[in-house]
Request: fold
Amino acid sequence: MVSQPKPSSEKSPYYDLAEKYGVELVFRPFIKVEGFTSREFRHTKIVIGDYSAIIFTARTAVDHFFRLCRETRHTVPDTLKYFCTSEAIANYLQKYIIYRKRKIFFSETGRIEELVPLILKHNKEIYLMPVSEGNGSVAADVLDAAGVTYVKAPMYRTVSNDFSPEEPFDYDMLIFFSPAGVHSLVTNFPDYKERGIVIGAMGVPTIEAVHEAGLSLDVTVDAAAPSMAAAIDRYLKAHQPATDSEEEAPQ
Reply:
């Protein structure tokens, strides 16, 4: 089971794996994102109009920022500045604004550390950073260490995507992409250690969560397998059952 939404394209490398090894792949997110209601957001006492610049660290944050602006009837001014941790996030803003007419800045490397100098350069701005509820992200740690003055605005939360009692859970391999997914496994299936399931994980925080849960990490990315699909391919290739000719080969 891959703990991500089903790929929208039939050309996904995961489908190639299913055909190559004759395995069944199920896409089932262990977690889901719920946005704050406008009433919940008002309870934070944060007034979006008080800020002249927004720091975006994820496309999810972009979605919920503009959703709450719409629901609270706040008109986003043309003068608002956007600071994004990657070019992909910056480009995603085109879903909501006319890109060429706005002041948009982003990290060339996709690292928050590279965005900090740009933020500090525009030190007269009043910064707001949309985050997940209870956020303790690396981005926030970097901004705090650099002395950036900003306010974190919780606009959404990550919750466990619970399994129903009648839903089968007979997977041989689980692939995780977030610590929350690992925590959801522990919550939904207290007997997970006894099931002998192969565990795969991507990203340092996710791998740390796997170890903290007492699980053995069997599949992950590295220089030789830079994507999770490649890492799964490597694992399946190494654990293919021996053919009859191989079993009968002389010692």
Observations:
- The beta strands are 31-35, 53-56, 81-84, 103-106, 127-132, 150-160, 173-176, 198-201, 217-219.
- Residues 13-30+163-239 form a domain with the Rossmann fold fold (CATH 3.40.50).
- The first strand starts at residue 31 and ends at 35.
